[in-house]
Amino acid sequence: MNPLANFLIKIKNASRVKHETVTVPYSKFIHGICSCLLRAEIINGFEKKSKKAGEEIVVTLKYTENKPRISDLTLVSKPSARKYIGVNDIHPVKSGFGILVLSTPKGVLSDTEAKKELVGGEALFKMW
């Protein structure tokens, strides 16, 4: 299965049932996405842990007024159909209440960070 889709579904489901943390398999790509979500204040934090079976990332979810910070998300790019966006084509998600996460030459960035850095890239997912 697609590791990005697996990661996002785990986070979405855990936030809906109000879990405090989620554990996902480690990869540099998922680590970059967690860093982006932390900078955008979507999650409270994350930590890389080593186990006998391999490495994992433990993501601490964020709630505001007992409501999950993640209400919904949609995958933009899929392994079979990649979507690339130029810097001039980046628009606010849900009138600025959501974020678009992009994989750029400067790393995994949110839509506002990508505009500041003047880079486009592969649109990974939208979250609000």
UniProtKB/TrEMBL annotation:
Alphabetical GO biological process terms: translation
Annotated GO MF terms: structural constituent of ribosome
Domain of life: Bacteria
PROSITE patterns in the cross-refs: RIBOSOMAL_S8
SUPFAM superfamilies: Ribosomal protein S8 (SSF56047)
This protein's GO CC annotations: cytoplasm; ribonucleoprotein complex; ribosome
Keywords associated with the record: Ribonucleoprotein, Ribosomal protein
InterPro entries from the UniProt entry: Ribosomal_uS8, Ribosomal_uS8_CS, Ribosomal_uS8_sf
NCBIfam families assigned: PRK00136.1 (NF001109)
Family assignment from sequence similarity: Belongs to the universal ribosomal protein uS8 family.
Name by which UniProt lists this protein: Small ribosomal subunit protein uS8
Native source organism of the sequence: Candidatus Nomurabacteria bacterium RIFCSPLOWO2_01_FULL_33_17
